[in-house]
Design brief:
Layout lengths: L23 E6 L14 H8 L6 E2 L4 E2 L5 E6 L7 H17 L3 E6 L4 H12 L4 E5 L19 H9 L4 E6 L4 H10 L1 E4 L5 H11 L2 E7 L21 H11 L3 E8 L10 H17 L3
Parallel strand pairs: 1-4, 1-5, 5-10, 6-7, 6-9, 7-8, 9-10
Antiparallel strand pairs: 2-3
Helix pairs in contact: 1-8, 2-3, 3-4, 7-8
Length: 289
């Protein structure tokens, strides 16, 4: 295992610092082998990176600029599409390198299963870890068509690591009945929007607990973000998501991810541009705190 990471050839805009000086380290997980509907999320991280040069490094929302901070983009992992467990192992290893160097890992998916690899690394360092989860889907199935390692099961596998009351779910508007029954007993689920988020943030800030922040982009209304594998009607606006991200950034976020862009499913490029802007705002919200 390399102790430091090498410079990537193409970086997300403004993220060209060295590994040694960086506060945040980006890495991509181009994996979508368990996608249950429309594949293509494996191309999400590369598309976000490539299309980011259509964006500015400056955010008028936050009055911050990526060029004023140090972010290192370590590029995409080369993952085994034939083995979910092997892919998760490699994601965990990359996240662990970043964490062990005292830096904040930000993962770009890929399907949502990739989150599990990064959470495995984070929970080794922070035993009292909480997860804040934005998504259209509960992702709490025990298995999907017999597979326990599926993007439909990722939060169920995370629950096995964290236990009850430490996964906080928002915007959820899809899942089978058993998932919602499981949530009633074991997770903190907020359906349809961000109701309750400000109260949660105040509680987590007071307790100073470490937070893993995962954003499945299909939490956005599918009419503005159609480029995803399992679009769901309803959802939130970009501005609502941004405001929620800024709230979450007030907690002790120790790791984060953005996932489930399938760029070829929206040939207009709007979904990719939106994903890039979400990533820019996430990075800036976590920098300079």
């Amino acid at each position: 295992m390399r102790e430091t990471l090498l410079q990537n050839v193409e970086t997300f805009i403004g993220c060209d610092a060295s590994f040694e000086e960086a506060e945040i380290v980006l890495f991509g997980a181009p994996f979508d082998s368990t996608t249950s509907f429309r594949p293509g999320a494996r191309f999400g991280s590369a598309a976000i990176r490539h299309e980011s040069f259509g964006l500015e490094t400056y955010s008028p929302y936050q009055d911050k600029d990526l060029t004023d901070y140090k972010v290192f983009d370590s590029g995409d992992l080369e993952l085994c599409f034939g083995s979910s467990e092997q892919a998760l192992k490699e994601i965990e290893e990359r996240a662990s390198i970043i964490i062990n160097h005292g830096k904040l890992p930000v993962l770009i998916g890929g399907e949502h299963l990739v989150t599990l690899g990064s959470v495995r690394a984070a929970v080794k360092e922070w035993k009292d870890l909480h997860i804040i989860h934005f998504d259209a889907h509960a992702d709490l199935r025990e298995d999907y068509l017999g597979a326990k390692l599926s993007h439909a099961c990722v939060m169920r596998r995370c629950h096995e690591l964290l236990g009850d009351g430490r996964i906080h779910q928002f915007c959820i508007r899809s899942g089978d009945r058993e998932e919602f029954r499981f949530a009633d007993q074991h997770t903190d689920m907020h359906k349809f929007d961000f109701s309750g988020l400000s109260e949660l943030v105040a509680e987590l800030k007071e307790k100073k607990v470490p937070v893993y922040f995962t954003i499945d982009l299909d939490c956005l209304d599918s009419s503005i973000f159609p480029g995803t594998g399992t679009p769901e009607a309803g959802g939130v606006s970009f501005k609502e998501l941004l405001d929620a991200m800024l709230l979450v950034s007030q907690t002790n976020v120790v790791a984060a991810d953005v996932n489930e862009l399938a760029p070829m499913l929206d040939t207009t490029g709007v979904s990719t541009a939106t994903a890039g802007k979400v990533l820019r705002e996430l990075l800036l919200s976590l920098l300079g705190k």
